[in-house]
Amino acid sequence: MINHTNGWMSGWMGGGMWIWTVIGVLVVVLLIVVINKLSKK
User: How many CA atoms lie within 13 A of 28 on its CB side?
Assistant: First the structure.
């Protein structure tokens, strides 16, 4: 199971793994904005 996961990650690293990194950053930013809006209320 661990080896399968590592192989999958290695495959994405050479390809479009950066896309998931960008998506992850955008999600975090959106969460921060939503939390800030809720806090202001």
Answer: 6
